[in-house]
Amino acid sequence: NAGVTQTPKFQVLKTGQSMTLQCAQDMNHNSMYWYRQDPGMGLRLIYYSASEGTTDKGEVPNGYNVSRLNKREFSLRLESAAPSQTSVYFCACKNYPNTEAFFGQGTRLTVV
Amino acid sequence: RKEVEQDPGPFNVPEGATVAFNCTYSNSASQSFFWYRQDCRKEPKLLMSVYSSGNEDGRFTAQLNRASQYISLLIRDSKLSDSATYLCVVNGRTGTASKLTFGTGTRLQVTL
């Protein structure tokens, strides 16, 4: 059971480069989320998708875009990477409103 | 004020000790509550849900006080393997989705 799969696991970008972080879940969950985690800041919500075809901004959306490609996949795009986007990115999914979320293994991104 | 606040620690305790973590949240409309565990450089994983009636899972006991907007986690007979960061998580609704808000985490180090 894969659960939530994120690719890549590690990435180094130069300032100004673009890239897409991929996330796929095989749990048949409706909602998907992208978080970033920085030291001392906890996990902060970037974007979320309540269901296929919908996306909404979270707490820190600036510099990012997302696509909910289908029920399984939710991608996060950095159009022009900045050093401030150096972070660990986690994708998560959940089904019913008051249930827990399940996380992917994370993508460690460094922007130099 | 942060939506979810935790003491960052670290809590350094000897094996066999009892340790308690506390968490407060600001949104009185929050609907569900969780404790997650995060090991170094890994994704967060659900430890347990938290209910108003209190709930216990082996050595772990969680309590919720809605009136005080306060959540606690008690770990009895600490093991070396309990060393990790414990995240307090609060679930509320936003738009069409439910949204998990994370505390910054409390780090626990159990020593011999």
3D architecture notes:
The complex is a heterodimer of chains A (112) and B (112). Helices cover 0% and strands 52% of the residues of chain A. Chain A has no helices and 11 strands. In chain A, the strands form 2 sheets. In chain A, strands 2, 4, 5, 6, 9, 10 and 11 form a 7-stranded mixed β-sheet that branches. Chain A has a 4-stranded antiparallel β-sheet with strand order 1-3-8-7, with no helix packed on it. The model of chain A has no long low-confidence stretch (mean pLDDT 95). In chain B, the strands form 2 sheets. In chain B, strands 2, 4, 5, 9, 10 and 11 form a 6-stranded mixed β-sheet that branches. In chain B, a hairpin with a 2-residue loop joins β6 and β7. The model of chain B has no long low-confidence stretch (mean pLDDT 93).
Give the SSE map:
The complex is a heterodimer of chains A (112) and B (112).
Chain A: E1 4-7, E2 10-13, E3 19-25, E4 31-38, E5 42-49, E6 56-57, E7 64-68, E8 74-78, E9 87-94, E10 102-103, E11 107-111
Parallel strand pairs in A: 2-11
Antiparallel strand pairs in A: 1-3, 3-8, 4-5, 4-9, 5-6, 7-8, 9-10, 9-11
Chain B: E1 4-6, E2 11-14, E3 19-25, E4 32-38, E5 45-50, E6 55-57, E7 60-65, E8 70-75, E9 84-94, E10 97-102, E11 106-111
Parallel strand pairs in B: 2-11
Antiparallel strand pairs in B: 1-3, 3-8, 4-5, 4-9, 6-7, 7-8, 9-10, 9-11
The 3D shape of chain B can be described as globular
Number of helices of chain B: 0
Largest β-sheet summary of chain A? 7 strands, mixed
According to DSSP, the number of beta strands of chain A is 11
Regarding quaternary structure, what we see is: heterodimer
Distance between the termini of chain B: 37 Å
The structure class of chain A reads mainly beta
- Are there runs of chain A of 5+ residues with pLDDT below 50, and where? none
User: What is the helix content of chain B?
Assistant: under 10%
Q: What is the SS-derived class of chain B?
A: mainly beta
How many helices of chain A does DSSP assign?
0
Element order of chain A: H for helix, E for strand: EEEEEEEEEEE
